[in-house]
What does this fold into?
Amino acid sequence: MSTIRFRALEKANSRTPIHVEELDKKSTIFGSNVFNDKTMRQFLTSEGYKAVKSAVQHGTKIDRKLADYIALGMKEWALSKGVTHYTHWFQPLTGGTAEKHDAFFETSFDGADPVEKFGGDQLVQQEPDASSFPNGGIRNTFEARGYTAWDPTSPAFIFGTTLCIPTVFVSYTGEALDNKAPLLRALSAIDEAATEVAKYFDKNVKKVTPTLGWEQEYFLVDKALANSRPDIMATGRTLLGHTAAKGQQLDDHYFGSIPTRVLNYMRDLENECMLLGIPVKTRHNEVAPSQFELAPIFEETNLAVDHNSLLMDVMQKVAERHEYKVLFHEKPYKGVNGSGKHNNWSLATDTGINLLAPGKTPMSNLQFLTFFVNTIKAVHDYEELLRAAIASASNDHRLGANEAPPAIISVFIGAQLTRVLAELEGVTNGKLSPEEKTDLKLNVVGKIPDVLLDNTDRNRTSPFAFTGNKFEFRAVGSTANCATSMTTLNTMVAKQLRDFKKEVDALIKKKDLKKDEAIFNVLREYIKQTKNILFEGDGYSEAWEKEAKKRGLSNHKTTPSALKAKVSKKAMDLFEGLGVMNHVEVEARYEIELEEYTKKIQIEGRVLGDIARNHVIPTAIKYQNTLIENVRGLKEIFGKDFEKIAKEQLAMIKEISGHIEGINSNVDKMTEERKKANNLTDIEKMAAAYCDKVKPYFDIIREHADKLELMIDDEIWTLTKYRELLFAK
Ligand code: ADP
Ligand code: MG
It folds into this structure.
């Protein structure tokens, strides 16, 4: 009997749900581990409090002396909650989060005067060892050291006994070494551009804030079972494994009740989220067995991004207590749905208006249409860059594989808005007659209902769908840091809004048009220009692939091919033009992502080779020997008749040999291709080689191994099977 697998199964089956204490009402505990408004009022001087507020609202700098006072208050609060250490918490380009803990405790060299110390210096800046984080050549070029700097717009929080201070991570020459710094710049760019445009409609608008509500999908698997699979441990997904006889066909997981052990995990997780001020709201089963989703109330984008990164950490930590492992991988199991991270995005004004929500008056609807059409135009112009922003080795299993959504970026807007755009296309060029204006206001713009019935979740195949009062970017991968896609999207739209403003102002000035006439004129042209990006049909169909090709839309199915758009002249100009990233920062990210892709495929290749040879082949031989023995016995008993009687066994012996040969020879070939790829010095070529030369062997090897899994005695099969991984509670 296979000991690892069966011992793991025994463990998994004997678990009992962990008791979770019911905490106080959610509203009472919410944010109690966050240095939020309420706590700041309590622990800061009014000067310090005002400085932080102004930094959050207007981006003003906090001077050093004030920083000392703020640090003092923060320390006092933290110590009152039993905190012993502090860390600058940041998001390096590896994805994930990083932290380096320092104790508050300090003493003089002779051990006298022990104190808990934490001053402005420690709050504002820290120097982690940057050499251990990827920097894509930035450091080499500038011989710069990296430092982390406090981001006062995202509040400090306590996790465990550590005070975590959200920071950016930059080189001494100012290049961003992390995901947050470019995001903050993109948010500021769109704030500026969108505020200017919003002022056409309301002079009082002073600030526009992009909002983000992510939806995080994930799989849970029992810890013992996960540990029994070397592929899950090393790569986060199964590289082998035959589909379970029962998968998601019956949809019984989606509509079923949440198992108690899982529910307790979720409750525990939600309690932690509440303390950390992450406003999680919904939880439910997803389509695949053991797949779930968690979604918060949307927030300002920088905070939402931090919260998602933090959540992914917390999820794994809480899972430990419940003997689970969380799989964030986009496709942990073949044959069942994968996981995504839908990014719901909109723009909110400081006057309390959602710029992507239809309003009650014609003017507010014209404002809505302005932001709506400009977003479509931005996606149209930068579709390839948007695709690049979500490219990763693991997301390749969704985009462009047999999985939702496709690798082609398109925008779904629903039938009602399609009709509105069609009508706007007919707007007269230049000045509008009073009759036309009235007609537009009453019958076109005025008739947009404030609830758009067909903009719910109906078209699940669209990668970028308008869902009534926000756009939902669904192609983002479940492992992704939201910062990458949010930086790209907000920069694109910022650029578009800037251009729009220029065009409208020019029409007002040169053609003597009224403001609304000018807006109608520019929107009309955009609608004409961007039809190619709109698609309402089935995004998974072959017909769409063909149609999209005709329309000239990109369809990059793999990361190395998709990433190229990041370093195109168009992308460089965009990021540089808006001050979001200079070309060194863009190129560095490109290189890091290619490297990460290469390493991921390399590791998968190695692990696959190992388990195919060390698990599958020995088991196959063991079983084959049993068959051989059986055939020998039959021959002994039946003499020359044995061939007829042992027919099936003989065929199986041969078939097993065939699969063993298939695995062995292909692992050899794959290893050969890896060697060749490793000898390449150009990272672009290396990534392409891993993609086109190494990766194709994965499916071939898997095919043989999965066939063997079906043939071989279940008792001796060593790798925990899909039905066990997917259905254990
Ligand atoms: P559902 O799609 O489940 O019916 P909603 O459409 O209300 O629910 O919201 C889905 C997600 O969109 C949630 O995570 C929510 O926080 C987010 N969301 C809702 N409104 C906005 C907005 N204006 N900006 C960003 N995200 C939003
Ligand atoms: Mg959704």
